[in-house]
Amino acid sequence: MDYIARVIDKYIDEKIKAFNALNIVGPKGCGKTRTAKERCKTVIEFQDEEKRSSYLNIAATSPRLFLKNERPILFDEWQDAPKIWGTIRKECDDNPEAVGEFYLTGSTSKKVDTPHTGTGRISEVTMYPMTLFESGDSNGTISLSELFNNEEYDIDGIKSDLTLEKLFYIICRGGWPRCLAIKDDEAKLQIAVDYFEQIYKKDISAIDNVKRNQEWARTILWSYARNMATLSKRTVINSDVRATHDISDVTISSYIEALENLFVIKDIDAWTPQIRSKTAIRSASKHIFIDPSIGLAALGIKPEYFYNDLDMFGHAFENMVLRDLLSYAETQNARVMHYSDDTGLEADAVYQLADGRYALIEIKTGMNAIPKAEEGLLKFKEVIRIHNEKVLSNKEHPGVVYREPSLLIVVCANADMAYTTENGVKVIPVGCLRD
pLDDT for 342-352, tens place per residue? Predict the structure, then answer.
């Protein structure tokens, strides 16, 4: 199967110009090894059964022998031979002028404590499952980065042919590259199901060699899936789990930490500007899966289920869009956050670039929700404007001035055409979005 270009490709190629070694991390099955192989002349695979014993012997006794191979060299599943990390780190120290010679990839289900961090020598990038653009489900006709950088960028009239019915299937299938090598659509759905089963049966114990209860792990994933893309408190998840299992809060937290280290679940932090006095900002994190297909597999949901539960689809859809935004943010040195306060002011996502510019984004299933989403975004912008006027009016003791949003965006599941409202809000069909 030919290599499918990833949005992180350009970012990796830029990073490796400054560092001699790059560690690519991310969830199982997202394409880390294949992406690294595209850049290497030598591949050392410690999981290759024909060479494994020989490789491990060399790694344990004389790991520098590996460095005699033609470079760049990929060390896949390097955690099986942890001395490799120190060997590469020393090579970077000895040859500070060298760049782009080593790549490391490995299983997220195996955590290794190295004696040295590799800071300044071995850089790290996070890779996510495929975005809709990478998997070919989005036509990629609207660029998020172009929206930020080109005020004349015209998106009006750009069309998408991605239907709600197709999205039901895509969300359950997930963004796993393995799916693109399978012809049968029903068979593709089994990839996420298998990943889910491997996570709670094997990976959660293998990551740090701590034996964990499979049913406890499965129930925690089920609870996270029930609360997908929500601000539910940890106590809600704890109560879910304890309803059927005798388990302490401390133990539940340790399982959640393991799942986070496995790149299975992730919390989206709150954006917390104090733009209203005496207003309580909901600083709780938003719970998502790195790919919503894992959460849907935990719930046993198939595409046809969504015909009768659009509310659940809305949560899964928001999770999927956040997954794509996280992938784009990794390549643009950006952050993805959310905002919510006790007055009802909210943004499903705050996409903030390194230079401070940001977009307020609402993620909606149906076009009927767009007017209310637009109203909320405009209100948010107005609150920031009023706040800035108030703090600047105090000449002697001005308060904090917050930058106004560069973009107001509504990402919609079933919109068939992009347009800009009279108030400047960009309405973008998810089937058009790219980095």
Answer: 888 999 999 99
In the prediction, which pLDDT does 303 show?
Answer: 98
Phi, psi of 165 (to 5 degrees): -60, -40
DSSP of 293-316: HHHHHHHT--GGGGGG-HHHHHHH
Task: Name the residue among 17, 21, 1, 11 with its Cα closest to residue 74.
Answer: 21
| Residue 197 to residue 9: CA distance in whole angstroms | 30
Q: Pick from 142, 151, 140: which is nearest to 406 by CA? A: 151
**How far is residue 40's CA from residue 42's CA, in Å, rounded to a whole number?**
6
* Tokens 């942890």 belong to residue: 82
Instruction: Note the pLDDT tens digit of each residue in 274-313.
Output: 776 666 667 789 999 999 999 999 999 999 999 999 999 9
Q: For the chain, how big is the Rg over CA atoms in Å? A: 23
Closest of 261, 262, 227, 231 to residue 241, by C-alpha: 227
Question: For residue 185, what is the DSSP state?
Answer: H
Q: How many residues make up the chain in this entry?
A: 435
- Decide if pLDDT at 229 tops 60: yes
Cα–Cα distance between 221 and 409 in angstroms, integer? 31
Alpha-carbon distance 418 to 25, whole Å? 34
Joined tokens for residue 433:
């979005």
- Reported as type and span, the H/E element at residue 165 is helix 164-173
* CA 312 remoteness from chain centre: 20
Residue 189, classed as helix, strand or coil, is helix
